[in-house]
Write a structure and sequence with these properties.
By secondary structure, the protein is an alpha/beta fold. It is about 20% helix and about 25% strand. Strands 28, 29, 32, 33, 40, 41, 42 and 43 form an eight-stranded mixed β-sheet that branches. Strands 8, 10, 12, 14, 15 and 16 form a six-stranded mixed β-sheet that branches. It is globular and about 105 Å long. The protein starts with 7 loop residues before the first strand and ends in a 12-residue tail after the last strand.
Length: about 775
């Protein structure tokens, strides 16, 4: 004091009498100003800057506009029963985190003032659990720092008796505290003696098998959210690693929003009255579930989703005893959706709080509502657009207009026409300062009237209601109607999966049969086409491998004739016949004006991007990398070379409107996307890639969207013989990408293929129509 701390408010107890407050104030003044006459200070007396209060009177001492730092000594709760400590802590914690001008909270373990180690660990678990319940907080923990040369009265008393001052020892923490720290350690930063902290975590981690949660028979999306239709049954499983160990004493918890609306901005109630009484930050409540089996049916938690629609977002945690140790599984986020496309992305947000200023949220590479914490009215809609691959920035109702097509201005219910196609892509009601998404066109179909259903978010969690009710609540009698712009592709890109022109395919090629006849019209009709070449077009070299694929030399001409302008060579078959054959293959492709991707040339590195002109002077950049098989020096671009890959993406980003990366990854003959695939996909997009196209599994994997960018995890086989009885082997897909006038991906779809004797044709059967985005 007086700077940077302007004032201190000491709260030694929940209730104090007026004489007790006066006595403590007098003692504090004596300490602060005791030498002011002998040693005057420029700021003068600090008497007015130090206030003593009890907790009940604290509110009246706080200024709503003055930034606050709150420090909580855990010895405040010393001597109370565990239940009393939890109740007292919750009361103070809830008061503190709802303060709008709060800048930081600090905790002191205060070990010398506690009854023993058990009390210290119990109070630390309360404090850490509370901190971890704040998703926007940055948590710093210093378990190895102690007060040097303690001159407190207690320290002097202990020294006088020849006793040592008790020291907190985290390494002896009980199992429950260890489990909570291990499950939340990614959100905790330790700066002092960080190597010791990491070693402690490793030691604890190795004490017992690990736990994780998954939805049985499902796959999570790239953003690690598990999305399932609200109408379908599901089971959440608690899995141990290794699976041979069975969990005991299983406990389940749901994490639900503590507050239904928050104001994340610095704007006051006077400026934004509709967030009056909104708290300044989101938080989670941890609710125990009455279920103790390792499998949790969705019916047991149905009441935690939207009561009317049974959709929305929910987080789950599980705790169990494994091999005699307590373990907590990382939190799983489950989202139940209704319908598909834009409207599914709207319904998955039900149950999340209204966060005014949500567009400013940031956590690692996630921004806005993609932090999965909630949204405000405009970004509730923007999130749904981005889930469909629309690169719309986080915005407000006014700026959102710039990214939509106007259908009708100042329309009254019953006057504006709508179509099923517009509803699938996204149709928006605009009320000036508020927006809503049209969800269902009721009778009369094709006319937007008062009975049609809309979804919006304001003042709380999202809700579904009729247009008429929304207009009455907002005191409006008309609205502007917008839609996502219909597809008017300036450019179409086509990508294929694994192309293997050897073995029996080679014999047919030698007999004059073109393997691409069934798909060439689609490929040639695109502005650009590329695929993964899973063979060597060369007469050079020999191979002792069981699976080594050599293609006839005229294969390069067939690829060019089919319409391909680039082929990825970064895969596990690149070196089937050695480096000389690989270089010869690349040269033969180049002679046909097909750019070999992901392979080093005499004058360029393997990871160097290649650039292609499309329409209107726009450029796309392509890279190809492999994440399977042994790395072959610098001749093949690999996913493991992250620094080089980052530089290549940055180079591509500078010179191209769209950056595409072909990735050879995953597990062969498995439709299951691996954690490694998801991690690499996130990394690529977070570092500047706009489109990820995968190969190698030899079956079609899901088409997903992350941060508005499409990811085709695997397109399966395009040309490949063998395994005639394996259905997944003989079903592939072409990825068709439409680009808008800015050369951004405006839509992504899979065109299903059937392979007959290794050669593809478009699948026109009903089964072939099931391929879609996740």
């Amino acid at each position: 004091m007086p700077a940077p701390i302007a004032r201190v408010i000491w709260v030694p107890a929940e209730k104090l009498s007026a004489p007790d407050i006066g006595k403590r104030t007098q003692a504090a003044t004596a300490l602060l100003d005791g030498h002011i006459e002998a040693a005057p200070r420029k700021s003068g007396s600090l008497h007015e800057s130090y206030v003593v209060s009890d907790f009940d009177r604290l509110q009246k001492h706080l200024s709503p506009n003055q930034p606050l730092v709150v420090t909580i000594d855990l010895d405040y709760f010393a001597g109370l029963s565990p239940a009393e400590q939890a109740t007292g802590f919750d009361r103070i914690w809830n008061f503190v985190i709802e303060l709008p001008n709060l800048r930081a909270i600090t905790f002191a373990i205060s070990r010398p003032y506690l009854k023993g180690e058990d009390e210290a660990y119990r109070l630390l678990k309360l404090a850490l659990s509370a901190a971890l319940s704040l998703p926007t907080a940055q948590i710093e923990f210093e378990p190895f720092l102690t007060v040097a040369n303690d001159h407190s009265n207690l320290a002097k008393e202990l020294m006088a008796r020849g006793e040592k001052l008790p020291v907190f020892d985290l390494s002896q923490a009980p199992q429950a505290l260890r489990a909570r720290i291990l499950s939340g350690h990614q959100h905790i930063v330790v700066r002092d003696d960080a190597p010791r902290w990491k070693q402690l975590l490793r030691t604890w981690n190795d004490e017992a098998p690990q736990l994780h949660l998954q939805v049985k028979g499902r796959q999570c999306s790239t953003d690690n959210v598990w999305r399932i239709p609200a109408s379908e049954p599901a089971e959440i499983e608690l899995i141990t690693e290794p699976w041979t160990t069975k969990p005991e004493k299983v406990e389940w918890f749901a994490l639900t929003p503590k507050y239904l609306r928050c104001n994340l901005t610095d704007l006051s109630i006077d400026q934004v009255g509709f967030v009056a009484n909104a708290v300044p930050r989101p938080a989670w409540n941890e609710i125990p579930l009455a279920h103790h089996d390792s499998v949790l049916p969705i019916t047991k938690i149905d009441n935690l989703f939207d009561r009317q629609l049974h959709c929305g977002s929910l987080r789950l945690r599980a705790r169990a005893v494994v091999a005699g140790k307590i373990r907590e599984a990382p939190v799983l986020e489950l989202r139940r959706v209704i319908g598909s496309g834009f409207r599914a992305a709207v319904t998955e947000q039900f149950g999340l709080p209204y966060l005014f200023g949500s567009g400013e949220l940031s956590e690692n590479s996630n921004t806005g509502p993609e932090t999965k914490l909630g949204a405000d009215c405009a970004n509730f809609v923007v999130y749904a657009l981005r889930r469909q691959g629309q690169r719309v920035p986080w915005s407000d109702p006014k700026r959102l207009r710039d990214h939509l097509d106007l259908v009708a201005r100042s329309a009254a219910p019953g006057r504006a026409k709508i179509s099923a196609e517009d509803l699938d892509r996204g149709t928006i009601i605009h009320l000036g300062t508020h927006v809503a998404a049209v969800m269902e066109d009721r009778q009369p179909v094709g006319i937007l009237d008062e009975n049609d259903l809309v979804a919006h978010q304001l003042d709380g969690t999202p809700e579904m209601l009729t247009l008429g009710k929304l207009l009455r609540e907002r005191r409006k009698n008309c609205f502007d109607l917008f839609r996502v712009p219909p597809e008017k592709p300036k450019t179409t890109l086509v990508f294929g999966g694994d192309v293997m022109l050897g073995r029996s395919c080679a014999a047919k090629i030698e007999n004059g049969i073109d393997p691409f006849t069934g798909v060439a019209p689609l490929i040639r009709g695109a502005s650009f086409a590329a695929a993964n070449l899973e063979c060597t077009i060369s007469t050079l070299g020999d191979s002792s491998q069981r699976y080594a694929f050599r293609a006839p030399v005229r294969s390069a001409q067939l690829l060019r004739g089919a319409g391909f302008r680039a082929m990825g060579l970064a895969n596990n078959h690149a070196f089937d016949f050695g480096a000389a054959a690989l270089n010869d293959c690349a040269a033969r492709l180049s002679q046909q004006q097909i750019v070999p991707l992901g392979v080093g040339k005499p004058d360029t590195k393997a990871g160097t991007p290649s650039f292609f002109s499309v329409r209107d002077g726009k450029k796309i950049a392509l890279l190809a990398i492999s994440d399977v098989g042994p790395a072959a020096g610098s001749q093949i671009a690999t996913a493991s070379n992250r620094p080089g890959l980052n530089a290549a993406i940055a180079n591509a980003r500078l010179r191209a409107n769209l950056v595409v990366c072909l990735v050879h990854w995953g597990v062969e003959n498995s439709e299951k996307i691996t954690d490694e695939q998801r991690e690499l996909a996130r990394w690529l997009i977070d570092h500047g890639v706009d489109l990820v196209v995968g190969s190698h599994p030899h079956c079609v994997q899901a088409l997903d969207v992350y941060h508005g960018c499409p990811i085709a995890y695997s397109l399966g086989n395009l040309v490949f013989d063998g395994a005639p009885t394996v259905e997944s082997w003989n079903r592939g897909a072409l990825l068709e990408i439409d680009l808008n006038e800015k050369a951004q991906a405006s839509s992504a779809r899979l065109i299903p293929l059937v392979l007959e004797n290794g050669f593809p044709r478009v699948d026109a059967s009903p089964k072939g129509e099931t391929l879609s985005s996740r």
